[in-house]
Amino acid sequence: MIFVDMIPLSDYGQLSLLVPGLLVLAYIGNAIHVWYRLRHFKGPTSVAWSKFWLIRSHIKQTVYLDVAEVCEKYGSIARCGPNWLVTNEPELLRRMYGVRSLYRRNKGHVAYQFKPGHDNIISVMDDGKHTRLRSKMFAGYSGKENDNLISSIDENVMKLVKLIDEKYVASGEEFKPMDIGRKALYFTVDIVSTLAFGKSFGDLVTDSDNHQYIETIEESGPVIILVSVLPWISKLFKLPLLKSLLPSEDDTIGFGKIMGFAKETVAERFGPNKKSQRDMLGSFLAHGLTQEEAESEILVQLLTGSDTIATAIRVTLLYLSTNPRVLSKFLDEIAAHSPSSPITEPEAKAMPYLQAIIKEGLRLWPPSSALVTKTAPPQGDTFNGLFIPGGTDVGSSVWGVFRNKKFWGEDANEFRPERWFGLEDGRRKEMDDTMGLIFGFGKYTCLGKGVAMLELNKVFVELLRRFEFTVIDPTKPWKCLNFGIFSQSEIWMRVSRREKQL
Predict the structure, then answer these.
(1) What is the pLDDT of residues 189-204, one digit of tens each?
(2) Whole-model pTM?
(3) Residues 92, 436 contacting (CB under 8 angstroms)
(4) How far is the first Cα of the chain from the last one, in angstroms, to the nearest whole number?
(5) What distance in Å separates the CA atoms of residue 352 and residue 332, rounded to the nearest whole number?
(6) Whole-angstrom distance, CA of residue 414 vs CA of residue 321
(7) What does R_g of the chain's alpha carbons equal in angstroms?
(8) DSSP states of 193-206
(9) I want to staple 478 with a disulfide (CB 3.0 to 4.6 A). Which of 267, 278, 429, 491 is the partner?
């Protein structure tokens, strides 16, 4: 107070001008510092100064294309934000994701807290807790402690076949257009809900989005992915006014209803009359997952295991139905092997052309395309002679990795299963190692990889041995959304039965 009293009143006007000026200078100084530390990485002009480019790209749902273009134009490690780099270098990604990697998750992962305020294996930032969660769930995902894993998938494969056969097969002048985009998602949602909740949502039986789960995810997906760029947005949803907009376990439709299912399903495994089953959830709990952790993790199963694998199915069926040469070779392989129905996993793995088809579908349209970043260690990192300062967020251009012409050849954008044949051992290993990044790597390898491959190994054989699919309008094959994962719909096809089932 004495100091304030000593300031002449005439000087207050000068101080009122000085303080804003100092704030502006501080902002400019910080901006120059941020630009300077990553000045040796090239990128679009504006990205060094603000996140506007990233935000616009996410809002337009073109970030997977935009960052791939940035890597192609400015280099395999390029700048896409003030403190953000993006790379299409498989070796750097393996370094970032490796078990002993010093790169860490950052605040952007709060976007993947599917149950607000509760971490899960995707959102948790603490490496130790992440490792403990993985160890508790590994056996359940592997199928070793799940007696009904394969039978659940087989049952839903045949439900999909039945739905198509009874409702959508056309003959003569009949017109029964089928959106294979939606049917593929009903299929994966029913499988994951069976594995996660012990009972299917029944979308294939009713041929509908029974709980409006799909509709809700497509509406909320853009918000989730934007929070990964601007994590502070998540704090706004803690305000009373906005908190009411979040899904609730008491909701009768949408994601809130699924949260309620998760809570009820897990609660049945606790208490005096608890159920004990040899299924995925039973395995999680047997290995020490708490009730709260289990509720979050079965939500993760549904959100990460439905649209992702549905994308692989949609894309691959679209490529097969528009590529007579590849389809003919695939049908010949089915006829030559004459697998059982449903096809078993060993039978599928013995069909090399099927395996190449699955790889090409995954390569061209990676199920997850989010620009998920990891933060460089405090001491920084050096890759190919370029120093990445500590604290820098480095993201992956998944699209860029799998469509890089320098790696895959000039035909990188072509669906060509033959690229996987006639390879020298060194080149085969290089391609297989890179393809492994589809499901993450090291400590971030997707636990559901085995389940996903089981689905893919079965569904194409069972559908194409019975049906012919024709795209109704090749000039407009689908409607495609992207919010870190793809959601394709309106893939209208005409379906007819084969004269002789293979």
Answers:
(1) 999 999 888 889 999 9
(2) 0.91
(3) no
(4) 92
(5) 12
(6) 15
(7) 25
(8) HHHHHSS---HHHH
(9) 491
Query: Which residue has 């039986």 as its token pair?
Result: 205
Give the pLDDT confidence of 338-377 residue by residue, as tens digits: 999 999 999 999 999 999 999 999 999 999 999 989 999 9
Sign of CA dihedral 245, 250, 253, 258: positive
Alpha carbon distance 297, 130 (integer Å): 12
Residue 498 DSSP label: -
Reported as type and span, the H/E element at residue 46 is none
- Provide the sign of the torsion angle of the four alpha carbons 104, 107, 112, 118, taken in this order: positive
3-state secondary structure of 468: strand
Q: Which of 305, 364, 321, 351 is closest to 458 using CA atoms?
A: 351
Nearest of 152, 250, 139 to residue 193 by alpha carbon = 152
Sheet holding 467-471, edge to edge: 178-179, 492-497, 467-471
Q: What is the SS3 string spanning 320-354?
A: HHCCHHHHHHHHHHHHHHCCCCCCCHHHHHCCHHH
Determine phi and psi for 165, rounding to 5 degrees: -65, -40
CA contacts within 13 A on the Cβ side of 250: 2
What is the band of 452 on the pLDDT scale with cuts at 50, 70, 90? very high
- Compute the distance between CA of residue 489 and CA of residue 477 in angstroms, rounded to an integer: 9
3-class secondary-structure state, position 395: strand
Task: Of 318, 344, 330, 337, give the one whose Cα is nearest residue 473.
Answer: 318
